[in-house]
Amino acid sequence: MNKALPSRVPVTIISGFLGAGKTTLLRHILQNAKGHRIAVVVNEFGSLGVDGEILRGCGIEGCRDDDVVELVNGCLCCTVADDFLPAMEALLDRADPPEHVVIETSGLALPKPLLKAFGWPTIRSRMTVDGVITVVDAPAIATGRFADDPEAVARQREADPSLDHDNPLAEVFEDQLNAADLVVLNKTDLTDTGELAKVEAEIRRLAPRPVQIIRAAEGRVDPAILLGIGAEAEADLDARPSHHDAEEGEHEHDDFESFVVEVPEQKDVETFLSRLQDVAARFDVLRMKGFAAVQGKAMRLAVQGVGTRFRYEFDRSLPAAGARTGQIVVIGQKGLEEAAVRQALAGV
Ligand SMILES: Nc1nc2c(ncn2[C@@H]2O[C@H](COP(=O)(O)OP(=O)(O)OP(=O)(O)O)[C@@H](O)[C@H]2O)c(=O)[nH]1
Fold first, then answer.
1. Does residue 51 have its Cβ closer than 6 Å to ligand 1?
2. CB of 11 within 8 A of CB of 92?
3. In this predicted model, what pLDDT tens digit does every residue of 81-127 receive, in sequence order?
4. CB distance 331 to ligand 1 below 6 Å
5. Where would a tag sit more exposed on the chain, N or C end, judged by fewer CB atoms within 10 A?
6. Given phi > 0 = left and psi -120 to 50 = alpha, else beta, which region is 248?
């Protein structure tokens, strides 16, 4: 008689470029978990850990703070053995292990090295990758954020025939798309129907195999669609090509850089927001997020910027005592002028 295999805990990987809406989608999943025990693992590019902050103490019923595991030490896809595997084992060894694990990777992470980790002996009998969901920023594609300059590629190819792209964003975006079992085409509220159709056609052109695309605004997709894909993605790596396949999991993120800027208490929201927007535009910043104190306000101001598009909210109380300084993480392509950005954000 066959002995039944112990069931493996399903894992969903949420991938997608900086600011595409991964944390927003994750919050929507947690808000609609209907009592299922979901553990969340977050990893960010940049040392500030804003997403973990947002998810912990999110006030969502049934979501306990210790269900949110934050891996801040570098990029998940590069530190698999050191940080990631022990964190997964710790989750599985809990007295009340989760029913499902959702991993939000950083916006610059390549999903493939992470997928490979699920083939490691200590983990493969206990977990399976239910699916890779790639969140895509519809207006960013529509405005050509991930597009190459064909002439530049042709010129560079003369020197290096193996060259695929002149735009490092295109490479990361394609790797994330290549790994996807499902694409969530997010921010449809910012893109008209004609453009959305073009964006979908572009995704289908780039994807290495037919992929389901779901349109969404604010990450509102029924978790029943997102969780339970049953892809067993770790067993299907060859169908998910990566630009870094030849590098045996080793790769650098040296096309991008990130730093954290301390900002003083702000006079008012409007002046601060327009300064952030101005900095994003002048220095071509890809992503800014963080927190600040505003004069006369007891609540903390949380700001989120994707390119020059910003949102803010007063999200929670600031400690009554202590310095009223804030912190903003800034992410851009290599060559970002750190000193000038710091100066501009300080308002001098
Ligand atoms: N207009 C609009 N804004 C959105 C939508 N989804 C997310 N946002 C906003 O986009 C910004 C980035 O969203 P996040 O969910 O933090 O994106 P992310 O992919 O987790 O970002 P990183 O972790 O930094 O890569 C936030 O200000 C969100 O409120 C959407 O559908 N429409």
1. yes
2. no
3. 677 888 899 999 999 899 999 999 988 888 988 899 899 888 999 99
4. no
5. N
6. left
Is 9-247 a domain of CATH 3.40.50.300? yes
Both tokens of residue 175? 């790797």
The position carrying tokens 């056609």 is 201
**What is the spatial order of strands in the sheet that 182-186 belongs to?**
68-71, 38-43, 100-104, 9-16, 127-137, 182-186, 212-215
* CATH of 256-346 given 3.30.460.80, 3.30.1220.10, 3.65.10.10, 1.10.1330.10: 3.30.1220.10
- Distance between CA 290 and CA 61 in Å, rounded? 25
pLDDT, tens digit, 9 for 90 and up, residues 19-48: 999 999 999 999 998 888 899 998 877 666
What are the boundaries of each domain within the chain? 9-247, 256-346
Residue range 306-344, pLDDT digits in tens: 999 999 999 988 888 888 999 999 999 999 999 999 999
Atom number, ligand 1, closest to the C-alpha of residue 187:
31
Q: How far, in Å, from the CA of 97 to the mean position of ligand 1? A: 29
